[in-house]
Design brief:
The complex is a heterodimer of chains A (about 400) and B (about 325).
Chain A: H1 2-23, E1 33-39, H2 46-62, E2 66-67, E3 70-78, H3 83-95, E4 101-104, H4 108-120, E5 124-127, H5 133-136, E6 144-146, H6 153-164, E7 169-175, H7 178-190, E8 194-201, H8 210-219, E9 223-226, H9 231-242, E10 251-254, H10 262-265, E11 274-276, H11 285-298, H12 304-322, H13 330-338, E12 350-351, E13 357-368, E14 374-386
Parallel strand pairs in A: 1-3, 1-4, 4-5, 5-6, 7-8, 7-9, 9-10, 10-11
Antiparallel strand pairs in A: 2-3, 11-13, 12-13, 13-14
Helix pairs in contact in A: 2-11, 2-12, 3-4, 6-7, 12-13
Chain B: H1 21-60, H2 67-85, H3 88-111, H4 119-141, E1 157-161, E2 164-167, H5 168-190, H6 192-202, H7 204-209, H8 214-240, H9 247-261, H10 266-292, H11 297-322
The chains are: A alpha/beta (about 400), B mainly alpha (about 325).
């Protein structure tokens, strides 16, 4: 009898285990959230991709690698700074990996090229750097959010600062792709002086700006504005100094000096102001924790690329939590994300109707620390709660 | 504005209606001179790369896609040695020796098996070497790239003519490269080694039949080509910084130069490099303003960079149609 009971118990336990195992994929608690992450992981811009990945991984670690209680798997893909590769990787993540979310995109042209498959498949996307005017305006989508900015905003802030400094004439330079054009428009939207010249250079292969710097010298402006992201920023700032212009014509920048390029630019970056939506020393608690944890883990300073990517973790967490893990409830997730109910490292912000943050922009400059290292500092607030000008072209209300 | 730029206080702004016509014309002329110097500087850099490439192609009949990797190695060596020795010049000299040595070792190990095989094998083999070197550099120096800083006294513009300021370091590049070109000319035209190189370019079998150690000659030529590429890389490093894959884009231009100049001809490489450098730079400098006369500012800004980069390839196509052997064909083989 005892043997019988024992075997019966064993049998039922085994059966119960079997059914539990069979049920497992159906219960929300066991499902894994798949996130596709597109950035640049090869070539000179790989430093940016690394910073974004580090920040995203740090954010996931801090929430126990779970979003809304569900475990997360991230698939990283390299866009090689090429729009055609970016769209191909985006399609691969959607069609063969069946990811639930896509995060990333450094380059505006890659993001715009990848937009159609994202919107067609209704994949909830968080763009963490690229800020093409198209995506903020006519091509805005209920499923696409940005934790960064619209490209015009940062140079518009520096244009405001140039007015404050009494700059009367300016020469503008940037690379010849979507973001470069947006940036040049951005400065002109606020700068009240005269534009005495502007140049777009080949992107991404032109790294020598001798002809353009000669033009800038010849145009005799009060100031030069430049947008050269990533490694191109190092080349531009170096050549600006080598041309002897640094003592003659002041330079104002957007996205040209960052925490990744500063250790290589060193003294050349000092005295060159820039505008930014985030600086590593912003005094809010979320940012203090992010910067301290990042430095402890990776032994280097995070950049704005990383900061805006870090915020994507909290944003996705708020979405999955709101729908209790029911990832098919895209409306529910979208509404939760629109509230921007997160502790952002830039301080609190709201989303505009086009899902671009309404946020403040700061003046930053580079300084040398007592120990010989270099760091970026917040100098002042340039514009508070700024909304991009393209939101009126976005049909979403 | 005048307060910021005292030396320009007398001069009218370009496009401004005021000012004496004469001074504005002079100023346009001086600006043109400055842009020509920019073109010459790019041309000099291209010459350094193309000279090595054309020697190797012309004499050894080897298509060497890995030439850009030697350019990259030169830059990495220079950045490393300059950091160790604390001297830019000493770092550059050591880097030159190291690149030449790397080139000769590379020739013995990896290039020799490619001789006498079809060009497609050369392309495949040396393309593999590009991947190898990119990964090797990533392992040794890391993925982030390096900076080769100039001494601070180089960070200024030099007044070469009254009113024409030119970055001092770029001026140094032009002068040093001209000296290298002269040395190369003397080496090829006036020395025994140069005679063998020229003989090898026109009739390889005959040189071998005369009892010349062709293997050694090839190793030396490859080493010479490598040091020229390394020299180009280290001279360009302070301007463009040091990065993995930095030699790949510039190598395409160097190939264009040797096709225009005539394969195997150093004189052709020199002339073609100057033409390509000037065409690229003057296109970038003046095309946007020309286009702005007929197009909107936005359209002109977008179109000009594309057109100026196309112009080089259009020149190459034209040369190929009119003179398929290039401007200065090497002695017939």
């Amino acid at each position: 009898m005892r043997v019988l009971i024992k075997s019966w118990l064993l049998g039922t336990t085994a059966l119960a285990l079997l059914t539990a195992a069979a049920d497992a994929p159906a219960t929300a608690q066991q499902k894994t959230i798949k996130i596709g992450f597109i950035s640049t992981f090869s070539g000179p811009a790989a430093a940016i991709g690394k910073d974004m990945r580090n920040s995203f991984e740090l954010g996931l670690d801090q929430v126990g690698r779970k979003l809304g209680g569900m475990p997360v798997e991230v698939i990283y893909e390299d866009d090689q700074i090429k729009p055609d590769v970016g769209v191909q990787k985006t399609k691969k993540l959607i069609e063969s990996d069946h990811v639930d979310f896509i995060v990333g995109y450094i380059w505006s042209n890659v993001a715009v090229a990848s937009l159609k498959p994202l919107v067609d498949s209704k994949t909830i996307t968080v763009i963490t750097n690229a800020g093409a005017s198209e995506i903020a305006g006519p091509m805005c989508s209920p499923y696409v959010f940005s934790t960064s900015w619209q490209n015009d905003q940062t140079p518009a802030a520096i244009g405001t600062y140039m007015n404050e400094k009494g700059v009367k004439t300016a020469f503008l330079m940037g690379p010849n792709y979507i973001a470069g054009k947006d940036m040049l428009h951005g400065v002109q939207s606020t700068f009240k002086g005269k534009i005495v010249g502007q140049e777009l250079t080949r992107w991404p292969d032109q790294l020598d700006f001798s002809a353009e710097l000669s033009k800038a010298r010849e145009a005799k402006p009060d100031a030069i504005f430049a947008f050269y992201p990533g490694g191109a920023g190092i080349q531009f700032i170096t050549q600006y100094a080598q041309s002897g212009l640094k003592g003659q014509i002041p330079l104002y920048t957007a996205f040209t000096i960052d925490d990744l390029s500063l250790p290589r630019l060193k003294d050349l970056a000092i005295g060159v102001p820039g505008a930014q939506n985030w600086v590593n020393d912003l005094p809010n608690d979320a940012n203090k924790k992010f910067v301290a944890d990042y430095k402890a883990k990776f032994h280097t300073s995070p950049s704005f690329y990383g900061a805006d990517t870090y915020d994507a973790v909290a944003l996705l967490d708020s979405a999955v939590t709101a729908v209790h893990g029911n990832l098919s409830d895209k409306e529910g997730m979208r509404k939760a994300m629109e509230k921007a109910d997160i502790k952002s490292v830039r301080g609190d912000f709201k989303f505009g109707n086009n899902h671009i943050p309404i946020q403040s922009f700061y003046l930053q400059d580079a300084g040398k620390n007592a120990d010989g290292s270099y760091a970026l500092h917040t100098v002042s607030l340039i514009v508070k709660n700024d909304q991009d000008k393209y939101h009126t072209q976005c049909p979403m209300k | 504005m005048a307060a910021l730029n005292p030396r320009h206080a007398w001069a009218p702004t370009r496009g401004a209606p005021t000012g004496a016509l004469g001074s504005q014309g002079d100023e346009q002329m001086l600006y043109f001179v400055e842009q020509c110097l920019n073109g010459v500087q790019l041309g000099m850099l291209l010459f350094l790369l193309a000279a090595g490439l054309t020697l190797i192609f012309g004499i050894m009949d080897l298509v060497n896609l890995a030439h850009g990797s030697l350019y990259m190695l030169g830059a990495y060596f220079a950045a490393t040695f300059a950091a160790v020795t604390g001297s830019f010049v000493l770092g550059a000299l050591l880097a030159l020796l190291a690149t030449a040595a790397s080139g000769m070792v590379l020739e013995v190990i990896a290039i020799r098996p490619l001789y006498g095989r079809p060009h497609l094998d050369h392309v495949l083999g040396t393309f593999g070497l590009i991947l190898f070197f990119n990964d090797l550099v990533r392992r040794i120096w890391g993925p982030d790239g390096m900076t080769l800083s100039l001494p601070s006294e180089m960070l200024r513009a030099f007044q070469i003519l009254p009113g024409v300021y030119y970055p001092l370091y770029r001026l140094v590049i032009i002068l040093v490269t001209l000296a290298v070109a002269a040395l190369l000319y003397l080496l090829v035209m006036r020395t025994r080694l140069g005679m063998l190189i020229r003989a090898g370019a026109s009739n390889r079998e005959m040189v071998g039949a005369l009892g010349i150690n062709i293997k050694l000659l090839y190793t030396l030529v490859f080493g010479l080509g490598a040091s020229l590429a390394g020299f180009a890389g280290l001279m360009q490093a302070p301007i463009l910084t040091v990065q993995i894959g930095m030699g790949e884009n510039i190598l395409i231009l160097a190939f264009v130069v040797i096709v225009i100049g005539g394969i195997g001809s150093i004189r052709g490489a020199f002339v073609a490099a100057l033409i390509v450098g000037l065409l690229d730079t003057l296109g970038r400098a003046f095309l946007p303003d020309l286009l702005r006369a007929v197009l909107s500012t936005d359209a002109a800004l977008t179109l000009a960079p594309a057109l100026s980069s196309m112009s080089i390839y259009m020149l190459m196509a034209t040369v190929l149609v009119i003179r398929p052997e290039g401007l200065f064909p090497a002695a017939s083989r």
